[in-house]
């Protein structure tokens, strides 16, 4: 069993590894955890002693196979709780992340097993992120960022890279959610902004918006 702080570090290191594909620097971990690099060093050394990760001074930290399973289990709980909050308690998708951050630390394996069964073993959370199974396996899907599409390409929204309430609320205003069909009608070479069509509406979106929306082309 690991403390709440240890679990948060394990999950953060996992997410950073997915981005960089190698050892994660203590500075990068400190930025994500919003703490001092010296505090990170103390924690990663502690987790290294527990065989959750390997740590090399000046190189960084990397989860072991056991550490990756622990991280996947935390992520599984987080995303299952998000599904529960949206589907059963009718929270909106921009409201659930912080609540799930608290619920993901529940230790009862039986509770999570029953929660998964109660929800029908969902494969994805409300933001389109895959929910790992009980063995830590993630379902992979073919997707790309909307910013990568060219003029006259079409696709379906399958996820969001940015999950801040402000970003999700912006998408709501534009009637964009998981499953929304999007057509690219124009693209500016200079700044990467786009004209897209959603339903009968056409409008401009910035490069920043497009770089945070996952699309499955059709």
UniProtKB/TrEMBL annotation:
GO terms for cellular component: cytoplasm. Coiled coil: none annotated. Homodimer. In the presence of manganese, represses expression of mntH and mntS. Up-regulates expression of mntP. InterPro entries: DtxR_MntR_Metal-Reg, Fe-transptr_FeoA-like, Fe_dep_repressor, Fe_dep_repressor_sf, FeoA_core_dom, HTH_DTXR, Iron_dep_repressor, Transcriptional_repressor_C. Gene3D superfamilies: 2.30.30.90, Iron dependent repressor, metal binding and dimerisation domain, Winged helix-like DNA-binding domain superfamily/Winged helix DNA-binding domain. Belongs to the DtxR/MntR family. It holds the Pfam family Fe_dep_repress. Its main location: cytoplasm. PANTHER family: IRON (METAL) DEPENDENT REPRESSOR, DTXR FAMILY, IRON-DEPENDENT TRANSCRIPTIONAL REGULATOR. Keywords: DNA-binding, Iron, Transcription, Transcription regulation. GO terms for molecular function: DNA binding; DNA-binding transcription factor activity; protein dimerization activity; transition metal ion binding. It is found in: Cytoplasm. It comes from the Bacteria. This is Transcriptional regulator MntR. Residues 1-64 form the HTH dtxR-type domain. The keyword Protein biosynthesis does not apply. PROSITE patterns: HTH_DTXR.
């Amino acid at each position: 069993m690991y403390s709440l702080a240890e679990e948060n570090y394990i999950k953060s290191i996992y997410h950073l590894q997915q981005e960089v594909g190698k050892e994660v620097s203590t500075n990068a971990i400190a930025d994500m955890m919003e703490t001092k690099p010296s505090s990170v060093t103390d924690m990663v050394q502690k987790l290294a002693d527990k065989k959750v990760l390997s740590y090399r001074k000046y190189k960084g930290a990397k989860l072991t196979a056991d550490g990756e399973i622990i991280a996947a289990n935390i992520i599984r709980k987080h995303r299952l709780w998000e599904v529960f909050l949206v589907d059963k308690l009718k929270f909106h998708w921009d409201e659930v992340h912080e609540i799930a951050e608290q619920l993901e630390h529940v230790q009862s394996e039986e509770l999570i097993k029953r929660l998964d069964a109660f929800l029908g073993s969902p494969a994805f959370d409300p933001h389109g992120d895959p929910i790992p199974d009980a063995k830590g396996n993630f379902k992979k899907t073919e997707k790309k960022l909307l910013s990568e599409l060219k003029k006259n390409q079409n696709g379906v929204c399958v996820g969001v890279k940015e999950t801040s309430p402000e970003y999700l609320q912006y998408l709501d205003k534009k009637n964009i959610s998981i499953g929304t069909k999007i057509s690219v009608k124009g693209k500016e070479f200079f700044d990467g902004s786009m004209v897209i069509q959603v339903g009968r509406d056409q409008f401009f979106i910035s490069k920043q918006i497009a770089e945070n929306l996952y699309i499955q082309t059709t």
